[in-house]
Amino acid sequence: GGGGGGYISGGSSYNTLSSRPRSAGARRVQRRNRPGDRTETASVSSHTTGGSGGVGGGVIGVCHPEGLTVTLVVEGRGYGIIVRPPPHSQTDPDTAMPVVAAIDPGGPADKSSVICLGDRLVGVNGRSVAGIGVSEVTQMIANSRPTVTLDLEFDVAESVVPSSGTFAVKLPRRHNGLGITLTASRRAGPDEPLLISEVIRGSPAHRSGTLQPGDRLLAIDKTRLEHLTLEDARNILACCEDIVTLRVQKDDLFSEEESGALVVYTVELVRHGGALGITISGSEEPFDPIYIAGLASGGLADRTGAIHVGDRLLAINGSSLRGKPLSEAIAMLQNSGTL
């Protein structure tokens, strides 16, 4: 977070694999949200905070819920967030979740850049607040010093973007920017586009439903980037107005996924302290693909029957590998815990 007011706790994920063993053989599942998770909304991407502006502008469309955990550090009298009961017509009182009704400009919640008006509050410091009155929830937050950890649910637009060609997306600029990190390919020539290497969970970029690591950033507002350096682009983003228009081209992997050329599935492995039995290959070039290079015979991964040499590894425990070099992917596997 900016200025020490708040910081994000928890990883980012975007269209990624999760896993669960076929304990009796790993299951294959389509990497798509369940139809039941989609909802119609009149404010798909129009979340605002303290006058920051909205994403998109309240266009009716389809969205799906995602979760986020944020830890805020208290400043002055509190955390700069007010919650209210949800609309009575939309929820069961026993499972009702308070919604974010106001965010103090410049406060810890605002500085986190990932909390927006209308977000549903799922938990406070690990305790579910479903069905709990707003006054009690407010007191729970106020009594938590010097930090509070909030579990939130928010909507991400099911945006329709072209699998090839370019498109424009308008995003509100927050305290910490748009929620994207840029990089340049090590092999890039002077006219090669800059790449989005990270999309921060809960940020305006993430909520738009349009941007992913690997996307090519072609222009910021009316400034084309083909002859500019990475530092030039960062400076332009830092000086943008409240609403920023990005011109983007999807990466090749997105095109393959949307065309059905790739079969994408998830596998969960419970290691029980043992090795996964996987060797991966790739390079330190962030956008080179990472593949399964070997499987230990009879090892955990081999026994699932779902993982094969030559498969492309897209994500580990919900964290996308787009924009990550081989060394980081290896570290993620080594630190993946028991699941």
3D structure, described in words:
The chain is of the alpha+beta class. The chain folds into three domains: 2-154, PDZ domain (Pdz3 Domain); 166-259, PDZ domain (Pdz3 Domain); 278-334, Roll (Pdz3 Domain). The chain is 15% helix and 27% strand. It has helices at residues 108-112, 134-143, 204-207, 230-238, 252-259, 300-304, 326-334; strands at 6-8, 39-41, 61-73, 81-84, 99-103, 120-124, 127-128, 147-157, 166-172, 180-183, 194-199, 216-220, 223-224, 243-249, 278-281, 291-295, 315-316, 319-320. The strands form five sheets. Strands 1, 2, 3, 6, 7 and 8 form a six-stranded antiparallel β-sheet that branches. The two termini are 29 Å apart.
Key features of this structure:
single chain; 3 domains; 7 helices; Pdz3 Domain; disordered N terminus; alpha+beta; 27% strand; 6-stranded antiparallel beta sheet
Structure summary:
The chain has 339 residues and is an alpha+beta fold. It is 15% helix and 27% strand.
Assign the CATH topology of the largest domain: Pdz3 Domain
Q: How much helical structure, as a percent, in the residues?
A: 10-25%
The tally of helices reads: 7
Model regions low in confidence, pLDDT < 50 over at least 5 residues:
1-60
Q: How much of the polypeptide forms β-strand, as a percent range? A: 25-35%
Question: Which structural class should the secondary elements be placed in?
Answer: alpha+beta
Q: For this structure, what is the CATH homologous superfamily of the largest domain?
A: PDZ domain
Shape verdict: globular
In CATH, the architecture of the largest domain is: Roll
Largest sheet: 6 strands, antiparallel
Using only CA atoms, what is the Rg? 21 Å
Q: Could you name the CATH class of the largest domain?
A: Mainly Beta
> How many domains in all?
3
Summarize model confidence as the mean pLDDT.
78
Number of β-strand runs? 18
Question: N-to-C terminal Cα separation, in Å?
Answer: 29 Å
Order of helices and strands: EEEEEHEEHEEEEHEEHEHEEHEEH
